[in-house]
Amino acid sequence: MADANRGRIAIVGTGITNRWEAPGRTAFDQAQEAALLALEDAGLTTRDVDGLFCSLSASGTPVLNVAERLGLTLRHADGTMVGGSSFVFHLRSALGALSAGLCDVALVTYGSNQRSAGGKLVAMPDPQPYELPYRPLYPISSYALAAARHMHEHGTTREQLASIAVAARDWARMNPAAMERGPLGIDDVLASRVVSDPLTKLDCCLVTDGGGALVLTRADRAKDHAAPVYLLGVGSAVSHRQIAAMPDLTTTAAAQSGREAYRMAGLGPGEIDHVMLYDAFTICTLMFLEDLGFCTKGEGGAFAASGAIAPGGSLPVNTNGGGLSCNHPGMYGIFTVIEAAEQLRGRCGARQVPGAEVALAHANGGVLSSQATAILGAPSTI
Which InterPro entries does this entry report, sorted A to Z (predicted)? Predict the structure, then answer.
């Protein structure tokens, strides 16, 4: 049974810069452009925004910088930083703030110039003293450790992991905004350079610039907007910081965040029409499919390799091409929510999932450290 928070707030605007390689544009430029695009989509202006939720890897005080740049007058702000899942954490915070009347229009925004500023996968501002002596490649060695353990415990194969990258590329080929749209096969993934055993370069996400934003308001105001998408459920969880402290390398805290989101929404995995999973690496998609209940533990590899998550499969997953083929500007979580919302609004062109009414967007932060799950619904679900 759903709880009282189901459908209390809605996304009424989305913005995405589609500038995946933009020399000369700062992280704040990307966040500002995405915010203005989302507000335009909602039929609002910066004068309407009184709640701001943002996190940028380029800034220790993103709320202050973004509020100043956009000229916002705020009644509420939240700069929670838990890595790439921060923006789904922000959805949960916005639910509380909007419901309590602490703000009326909430803006969630993000921007990055990671690719043009240097091309490293992520910055690592806080040292990891128990792992640093072993000189891991951060963060890929952490994910490689999880992949190796999953292969050991469940018989997952390299070919199964590669099928996840191929499925993402097949979706990306239907998305004119995706950065990588060329053909890709399993043999290509297996033959690419090993970065951290057992993961190769094509098991890894892209490194891009980019910006994304969402505008949210309460359900009673959402009906005044053209295409609201309702937040049916949301959950979050924090597990560890260093991968060596992860309780079980084959099970993530997505099991907890997903359980909370399903409970709030009054739904289960079998009622989800469309899925967006944070795919920083192929092993992420596999483990999140399991932990969120779309298949049992240990069967994620076979499920993906069956074609179930690819175009034409039974469960449309990462329909924009994901972090593996569309974009990945350091903190990808907001883009899972944007694509989920756009699918429910029917605005995805050739990759549109027919009849999609319920979508799940899941985000990951750190090294499988923080997890957050949002379930979104079209107006027909309210």
Answer: Thiolase, Thiolase-like, Thiolase_C_2
Chain-centre distance for alpha carbon 186: 24
Domain-located, residue 128: no
Q: Number of structural domains, the chain?
A: 1
**Bridge partners of residue 15, in order along the sequence:** 213
Q: What is the pLDDT of residue 185?
A: 98
Q: According to the model, what pLDDT value does residue 292 have?
A: 98
Q: Is residue 133 part of a domain?
A: no
Q: Burial letters for 194-222: b for 16+ Cβ neighbours within 10 Å, e otherwise?
A: ebbebbbebbbbbbbbbbbbbbbbbbebb
Question: Residue 200 falls within a domain, yes or no?
Answer: no
Q: Calculate Rg over the CA atoms of the chain.
A: 19
DSSP 301-346: HHHHHTTTTSTTSSS-B-TT-HHHHT---S--HHHHHHHHHHHHTT
Is 282 part of a structural domain of the chain?
yes
Provide the domain limits for residue 346: 9-120+206-381
- What confidence tens digit (pLDDT) does each residue in 196-249 have? 999 999 999 999 999 999 999 999 999 999 999 999 999 999 999 999 999 999
Q: What is the pLDDT of residue 58?
A: 83
Residue reference for tokens 């992949």: 147
Backbone angles phi, psi at 133, to 5 degrees: -60, -20
**Spatial CA neighbour of 336 closest among 365, 369, 311, 305:** 365
As given in the structure block, the two tokens for residue 278 are 């944070």
Identify which of 380, 312, 377 has the alpha carbon closest to the alpha carbon of residue 351.
312
| Domain CATH for 21 | 3.40.47.10
Pick the closest to residue 119 from 215, 240, 218, 209 (CA basis): 209
Residues of the chain below pLDDT 50: 121
For 114-176, give the secondary structure using H, E and C.
HHHHCCCCCCCCCCCCCCHHHCCCCCHHHHHHHHHHHHHHHCCCHHHHHHHHHHHHHHHCCCC
